[in-house]
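Protocol step 4 of 6: structure prediction from sequence.
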Amino acid sequence: MSLVALPPVEVNNFMRLFCISGMSHCADGDSAWQIGQTLQGVGNLMSETLDPKWNVLTALVRWVEEGVAPDTILGTKYINDTVDLCVQFTRRHCHYPLGNTYKGTGDDGDPNSWFANEDYSV
């Protein structure tokens, strides 16, 4: 059976796609694009910056080595994209075919004001 014939639930056993809405190619943008992929956003390499919930690379390592697949990756948007100026907002990025959807209430900068929507269309 080819990969394209598999339903998403089966593909998710070995591959996950995380679309980061509002992110330019690999970095920058209006969204919570910092997911541990650059040293600029990671800053010092310490346990907090290497936590798999914040760092896409360590999330992948944990999946391969421990069998714990990431359901979400927590992205961060810094004020003016500068770590020293503090966090502007954070957002959990879901894996395809799910999508982030604002609940309609609460602070839109709070990741708990969003949910993984199964009916999301790209």
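Step 5 (inspection) to follow. The radius of gyration is 15 Å.
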